[in-house]
Specification:
Radius of gyration: 25 Å
Mean pLDDT: 77
Structural class: alpha+beta
Oligomer: single chain
Number of domains: 3
Largest sheet: 6 strands, antiparallel
Number of strands: 13
Length: 392
């Protein structure tokens, strides 16, 4: 016995909403409290989008609604579901579902969208222009179907609103606190696409509480927001770090800035390096307070031991040096200078550093290794970056 048309339309919309709301982008927990964030893998995001879009089309086809204009309501519901639970508009899933339903219109619209992204490059409105191609092409190819055109325009307006940066004032009007600049605490447990470097920093902040104040700007958001929140002076410098999302570029060394002019130059220098990366990639920008450190270095942390490398000076001095000259091995609660290295790090600095990394060390299994960047300002030790290595 078939489902009546009004009821079948309601079923399709509700199922599409549920598909979009499913928390499919998960993290895999390694030993202890370490997590592997799958959402930063481009192939995994593409597979999820393909499955979501195809599932909505399959349900619509089974209800004889795949060619109906009301199918567009299901796509809107799919995007709303993803936005409400993951703060993601699911653009790729919408495109997949659109292709299955109306491939001639989708092909022309996608080609126009790709051209607009290439021409405009990483302009803040490039994606808005690409999305606008869908209702334009639909109006040209389905000029007799007014309902389809209206629903396509409605879908495009929604996608533009939730997927393109506007201004902080408009974001507040639209209740989008997840956009713009976010501090580390607000990113704990996030599924936002901010790259491995930013996710690791959030994890380090959550587990140690020993990180300096920091903010993260998601890819595509207006970099001017960083200048609005940043309070940078020679006495309170900031580190500017990149956190790639997709693409082929790796995170660059940090840049230390001491005024707004240097900050603006550093931010736009990072963005310029990522302008020609593939569609779907980008870069999150991290601003982190840079302690006026007397000593800085690295720690190679394992479950039963640690290698501590350091040198006098601040973070910038560390990144300019080929290799820290002070090298200690910490094992069985003892510090042992490594042969050939100097022993200039004060014992008080080493003790403060151990107190910081011991809670992280207790969570490690024998086959795991953490690489930490640290700095000591003479009063306390700070953990600045985290890198996870799984040993064989």
């Amino acid at each position: 016995m078939g489902i009546s048309p009004p009821f079948s339309q309601l079923v399709l919309v509700l199922l599409a909403l549920a598909i979009g709301a499913l928390p499919l982008q998960k993290t895999i927990r390694l030993a202890g409290s370490l997590q592997l964030d799958l959402q930063t893998w481009p192939w995994q995001r593409s597979l999820i989008a393909l499955l979501q879009g195809s599932a909505v089309f399959a349900i619509a086809a089974s209800l004889d609604l795949a060619r109906s204009p009301l199918y567009l309501l299901a796509l809107l519901a799919l995007s709303i579901g993803g936005y409400l639970t993951q703060r993601q508009p699911l653009l790729a899933a919408i495109a997949v579902a659109f292709v299955w339903s109306d491939w001639p219109t989708a092909t022309v619209a996608l080609l126009l969208g790709v051209v607009s992204v290439i021409v405009v490059q990483n302009s803040r409105w490039s994606w808005a222009i690409a999305i606008a191609a869908f209702p334009i092409v639909t109006a040209l190819m389905h000029s007799q179907d007014g309902l389809r055109v209206v629903l396509t325009v409605l879908l495009a307006l929604w996608l533009v609103m939730v997927s393109t940066p506007t201004t902080p004032a408009l974001d507040q009007v639209f209740s989008r606190p997840e956009r713009g600049v976010r501090d580390l605490s607000s990113l704990v447990g996030t599924q936002a696409p901010i790259g491995h470097r930013a996710h690791n920093l959030v994890q380090l902040h959550q587990q140690s509480g020993a990180t300096p104040q920091a903010w993260v700007l998601q890819p595509g958001d207006d970099p001017e927001w960083l200048l609005q929140v940043a309070d940078v002076t020679p006495e309170e410098p900031l580190a500017v770090l990149s956190s790639p999302v997709g693409g082929s570029l790796q995170a660059e060394d940090c840049q230390i800035v001491r005024d707004l002019v240097e900050l603006r130059q550093a931010i736009y220098a990072v963005l310029a390096d990522y302008q020609r990366q593939p569609v779907g990639s980008g870069v999150a920008i991290i601003l982190q307070r840079s302690p006026l450190a007397r000593y800085a270095g690295w720690v190679m942390l394992r479950s039963q031991s640690a290698e501590i490398l350091g040198l006098p000076g601040d973070r910038q001095n560390l990144h300019r040096s080929s290799r820290p000259r002070d090298h200690y091995r910490w094992e069985d609660q003892k510090f042992t200078p490594v042969s050939g290295s100097s022993t200039d790090l004060p014992r008080t600095v080493l003790d403060r550093l151990v107190a910081r990394f011991e809670p992280l060390q207790r969570s490690l299994s024998p086959n795991e290794e953490l690489m930490l960047e640290w700095a000591d300002d003479g009063e306390q030790a700070w953990l600045l970056q985290l890198f996870v290595t799984v040993c064989s």
